[in-house]
Write a structure and sequence with these properties.
alpha+beta; N-terminal domain of MutM-like DNA repair proteins; Helicase, Ruva Protein, domain 3; 2 domains; 4-stranded antiparallel sheet; 8 helices; globular; DNA-binding
DNA sequence: TCGCCTGTTCGGCT
DNA sequence: CAGCCGAACAGGCG
């Protein structure tokens, strides 16, 4: 479930497990995630070790002892997994890094939208992707200035990774719900106050998601996300306001949930 | 069986 | 050229 908070938890997980072990082999079960040749991966990784991690938005980086970085991008369904025994291996492992201690770090990814890429120059890479600062670090002034210029639906504008890196589909919906803004309003028509509010609720949503490890059932009662995916059928799909059902529309090609009563403009 | 899906990229418009 | 939009990628799941 990889938006910024999920990827941050993945980063902590990998940092706590897979660093400082010599890589003894790279097993490529499916080469699709590899952005360079398998030979280049073997050469860059085998007999080296991961020594550090970094993250910008949804992009997770593992630093090698050579100074080169390995990017893991999780796409829609990817996740890092760390295991030793075959029976603990998940079902959709694409690429597996075997470590000297007998454990393996792998990219598990049913839908195969994930990517692994060798990145010699991190700064140049981020620039080439036009990636903004991480959403946890973007200043209110930068956020307001950039968002206020976009001519498209605010929902789509929030998903641009050159606005604030790491905002994904559910976070955008949650931000708009908490700010009481309709997802199809054009971003450049928002007031300065609305733009500032969006920056504030972004920080709040990220904080909550990190605290609860994106376990939506534990989210505060005022959060739309809690109802969107509620297990409890009695509240599933309701607005937290309790007065109506959430509506689903498509904005910029993405499923978008909002409350027709709470988000009127 | 059909529709849905938490991300990114690319071709084609305007 | 910049911004915007829709389609495409792939496959499990309810």
């Amino acid at each position: 479930m990889p938006e910024l908070p999920e990827v941050e938890w993945y980063r902590r997980y990998v940092e706590g497990t897979a660093l400082n072990q010599r890589i003894t082999a790279v097993n490529v079960r499916d080469a699709k995630p590899l952005q360079q040749s398998e030979e280049e991966f073997q050469q860059a990784l085998v007999d080296h070790q991961f020594v550090d991690t970094d993250r910008v938005g949804k992009y997770f980086f593992l630093k090698l002892d050579t100074g080169t970085w390995l990017l893991m991008h999780f796409g829609m369904t990817g996740e890092p997994v760390y295991y030793r025994d075959t029976e603990d291996e998940p079902r959709f492992v694409r690429v597996e890094f075997v470590l000297e201690n007998g454990f393996k770090l792998a990219l598990n990814d049913p839908r195969k939208f994930g990517k692994l890429e060798l990145v010699p120059d991190l700064e140049a890479f981020l620039k080439s992707k036009k990636l903004a600062e991480d959403a946890l670090k973007v200043t209110e002034a930068d956020f307001v200035a950039r968002l206020g210029k976009k001519k498209k639906a605010v929902k789509s504008a929030l998903l641009d990774q050159n606005l604030a890196a790491g905002i994904g589909n559910w976070i955008a919906d949650e931000m708009l719900y908490l700010a009481r803004i309709h997802p199809e309003v054009k971003a450049h028509t928002l007031t300065q106050e609305q733009l500032r509010t969006l920056h504030a609720v972004l920080q709040e949503v990220l904080e909550v998601a990190l605290e609860y490890e994106s376990d939506y059932d534990n989210f505060p009662d005022k959060y739309l996300t809690k109802y969107r995916w509620a297990e409890d059928k009695d509240i599933q799909g309701q607005c937290p306001c309790g007065k109506t059902q959430l509506e689903r529309i498509v904005v910029g090609g993405r499923g978008t949930y909002f409350c027709p009563l709470c988000q009127k403009n």
